[in-house]
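Limitations
The structure tokens in this dataset are predictions for the assembled complex, not deposited experimental models. Users should treat interface geometry with appropriate caution, especially where small molecules or nucleic acid strands are included. An illustrative entry is reproduced here so readers can see what is and is not provided.
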Amino acid sequence: MTSDAEFGSSLGPLGTEGGRRELLQSIVALARSVFGAKACSIMRFDVASDELVFEAVAGEGEGTLVGKRIPSRTGVAGWSLASGEPIAIGDVTHDPRFARDVAEETGYVPRKLAVYPLHHDERTLGVLNVLDQGSSAQVGLADMAVLGHFATHAATALAAVEAMRRVQELRAQGGGEASALARVARALDAVEGKRRAAALELLEALETLLAPRS
Amino acid sequence: MGNDTQAEELPAWSVDRAHIMREPLQAPWPVVDARAWAWSGSTGAGVRVCIVDSGVDPRHPMVGAVQGAVAVVRSDDGELTVVEDEERDLFGHGTACAGIVRKLAPDCEIHSVRVLGGDLTGGGAVLVRGLRWAIEQRFEVINLSLSTTRSNVAQELRELADLAYFGGSALVASAHNMPVESYPWHFSGVVSVGSHEGDDPYEYYANPHPPVEFVAPGVDLELAWLDGSTIRATGNSFATPHMAGIAALVLAKHPGMRPFELIAALRAAGRNVSTAA
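Predicted assembly:
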């Protein structure tokens, strides 16, 4: 059996926590740059603890916020998560609860805030926050459209990050299921033609068998 | 369906006013000035508008009296039930929507069905339960500035949209701001709404390219919020109550109008359609 490090390496860039952080960080750094924002962050919804967790932060709070948690139903981010809808607010300091919550939890209170839910495969995985974007007074329709694409991109990345973490957690739990799946995937890669078609058919049947009943 | 194909197939619904095409009526409308005929002089009196959202704060001066407020809760046995709501609004969003409706239709009744906030985490089933209750009450207008991406409730939402349509409730729903598949806004019979960046609350357009049928102000609006405060915010969520408010005006002036008649009147009175615009 390979070591954890070898196994992680075999999964590619997302096989290590450093690689995963790098992917998410690149997205918030790019979004911050495109929108000329003071800060941009990705928060993941931790279903088990019912919290939002900062996964990546560019700009204000970059060195301190990653890993910080807030209740999932807090403020504008909580609304976006619960409703699945984006929202852009021009002056959040007028929202008494928002200003208090954010000041207490993050030490930084923005004036403008745009929050986008991260949808993937019918789930809302978290939110993308853009704080104090650019010099214009408002987030316009064009900004909203671009932010929507960033959120789609971030959601796909976060889904991939979560999947990789689950694979490694399964392996760490000693079940060996992940290793077995990896061996099957490698074996599948090595076959062609009728044998490959038959194997894919078998896997499809297995997937149907294991699918949750609706 | 995953996200990989959605970005290509589904637009985010907002429209630049400068690019909205003039949309002539294909058949003569029986009145010359459709906007004046539709709601001139109306204040929304006698029409009940239901806000299905995060609750409504009746203490906010931009909202005023709320004639009824309920919440969807999960009982001990796991069933979703509807009870009187004491929480008012825990996010501000429902209050913002109610404030817009009140601005356009000052004398309408406002009712609230809370499906978000507190112990509610949203989700398709809660939305379905709250919407079903609102339709059963036969509110003349139901404002739904929400949608769900859960395909497992799509069919039920489609049936509810039909129930509303045939039962005489105008269901006014936000198009999603993002390129994702969501429900129920794009079902036929639902008055679906996207945003434009204008600030005249009565300025709306009939979209020549459905499923979004109308675009109304949704950018940088001053809105009622929590604890009596106001904020400036952007989103299709806030365009939707503009159309709900105008629907209330039309229904107050033309009591008994059916949803299909209302939709036709709204279209005829759109800024890019009405001959008097």
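Some entries come with short summary sentences. For this one: Chain A has a mean pLDDT of 84.
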